Amino acid sequence: MTKYFDSKIETATREEMQDIQLEKLKKVVAYAYANSPFYTKMFDKAGVKPEDINSLSDLRKIPFTVKSDLRDNYPFGMNAVSMDKVARIHASSGTSGKPTVVTYTNNDLEMWSECMARLITMAGVTNKDVAQISFGYGLFTGALGLHQGMEKVGAAVIPASSGNTERQIMLLKDLGATVLIATPSYALYIGEMIEKLGYAIKDFKLRVGMFGSEASSPEMHHEIEKKLNVISTDNYGLSEIVGPGVAGECLEKCGLHVNEDYFLIEILDTKTFEPVEDGQYGELVITALQKEAMPIIRYRTKDITRIIPGTCKCGRTLRRIDKFQGRTDDMLIIRGVNVFPSQIEGIIMEIPEVGGQYEIVVTRENHMDKLEVSVEVANGDLLDNFKKLDELRSKIKHNLKTVLQIDAVVKLVEPLSLKRYEGKAKRVTDLRDLSKG
Ligand code: DLL
For ligand 1, what atom is nearest to the CA of residue 239? Predict the structure, then answer.
């Protein structure tokens, strides 16, 4: 048994886990009410008192917290401690305006490292490993979150940060990195560049990838596994809750185990906000059960997933959430059909002749939505063979139509010709003015 496999927690019975959660929930609700002016106001407005929370389902008496609450209380209005107790400040880059600021006490940082160390251990990483962290170091929670966890586990950390891909590859090879940490899209790009620069993957020691921070299909992970010769695991988290460390895959790779003693999850119907049955998709809502600087209760993540019923072969009883379909605000409605970009990714990446990057553009012509998907071919020679090219284009079009019921315009382009990202990839451009019909 490794140090960061906590059998008491990770193999607890459901009743034991619920007891732990309820005890922590009562405590955190009372704490937030007493110390965070934001939550005092919210509870008073909703007519809820901490004493009203006596069961896990009583949680539903409490209103949701949403991203705009963090923005409206920028920068420190959600805090429950004075600045002398704050040990770290992170922020997530919003698409516009001010970032969302999150704060941590030393105890919060310790809790976060513990969560990370568990997920790192779950992915089979130990103190014998050398981990290259290719997330951007800075306000983003990804790099420092994984960094702290790796240090706790005792792995040797290479804080490479993101960017300068050729140098990343040199470090991976020369320093004998066994673990790569990046966004899935950047990991795939590193794999493509390894090939392009003429290296052989057998000369690298990589064996595990801990990827996350953006939605990725199983097909994308298969592609990464082939290119980098790693077991490619998925990791989930968000700054508002803690950063990475909320949930991650074990080596069975059938869902992401949630650190349930720290994060209480609900999956709610996206329209009614009523809980859905286990196995059904809905919006993930998270309550952090043990945060001091910035408690957060019933945070609407906008991320769509489901609970995977049953237990995992690895023996952990921590419940698993499925790979994310996407975010409610990323969902495209094309000619009335709901489409997540991750569905398109899954369909195209399944085809072997397709390369590592794609772009989706949605426009509206004569009141009709038009979906255009640009896809890189895996091998540039294909572009000289009109017949094969045409067959591939028809195959992608056909598969998109079969699964999504949508006619798409498919463009095939040269390998490595579409834009690459060193962090989260931006793959969708919606040029429709949805205010017009
Ligand atoms: O991306 C935290 C993180 C860093 C997680 C590194 C994993 C690894 P934010 O920048 O605040 O935090 O973005 C959070 O990214 O609400 C999801 O929409 C998306 N996201 C994060 N991980 C995954 C994942 C970090 N594994 C937002 N699958 C979340 C799908 C993910 N989406």
Answer: 11
- pLDDT at residue 127, as a whole number: 98
Nearest to 209 by CA among 245, 190, 239, 184: 184
The low-confidence residues of the chain, meaning pLDDT below 70, are: 1-2, 94-96, 434-437
- Ligand 1 pocket by Cβ (under 6 Å): 92, 141-142, 212-215, 234-239, 243-244, 301, 303, 324, 327
Q: Whose C-alpha lies nearest to ligand 1, atom 27?
A: 238
List, for residues 208-227, the tens digit of each pLDDT value: 999 999 999 999 999 999 99
- The pair of structure tokens assigned to 143 is 């790099």
The whole-model pTM stands at: 0.96
In the reported structure, the alpha carbon of residue 64 is separated from the centroid of ligand 1 by a whole-number distance in angstroms of: 20
pLDDT tens digits, 64-121 = 999 999 999 999 999 999 999 999 999 987 656 788 999 999 999 999 999 999 999 9
Domains, in order of start, for the chain: 1-327 (3.40.50.12780), 332-436 (3.30.300.30)
Distance CA 27, CA 17 (A): 16
Q: Which atom of ligand 1 is nearest to the CA of 146?
A: 6
Beta-sheet pairing, 263-268 with 282-288: antiparallel
Give residue 280 CA to ligand 1 midpoint distance, Å: 21
- The DSSP bridge pattern shows strands 256-258 and 243-249 to be antiparallel
Question: Is the Cβ–Cβ distance between 187 and 209 less than 8 Å?
Answer: yes
Q: Which pLDDT score, from 0 to 100, does residue 436 have? A: 55
Distance 213 CA to ligand 1 centre (A): 3
Atom number in ligand 1 closest to CA 256: 26
| Measured distance CA(153)–CA(144) in Å, rounded | 14
CA 13 – ligand 1 centroid, Å: 28
